[in-house]
Amino acid sequence: xxxxxxxxxxxxxxxxxxxxxxxxxxxxxxxxxxxxxxxxxxxxxxxxxxxxxxxxxxxxxxxxxxxxxxxxxxxxxxxxxxx
Length: 83
Ligand SMILES: [Zn+2]
Known about the structure:
Elements: H1 9-12, E1 21-24, E2 29-32, E3 37-39, E4 42-44, E5 58-60, H2 61-67
Antiparallel strand pairs: 1-2, 1-5, 3-4
The structure holds zinc ion.
Zinc ion is lined by residues 24, 26-27, 29, 45, 47, 50, 52.
């Protein structure tokens, strides 16, 4: 009888630090960890008009670069980086 009920988002993303780049798989743009638009209790992608979630639809930028090593270490804001 453990008290663990699964992997919490905080555990999954404990390596995310404010200032790290995240990548929204919805709009395929990068933003800094800790940025979001709050909507009805959800933390959405900070880009206006995007309904991506900062938890479910966010990848670490490093993961994107694992697929596209030609992408810069520091992504530019508001630039679409196709997967
Ligand atoms: Zn987005």
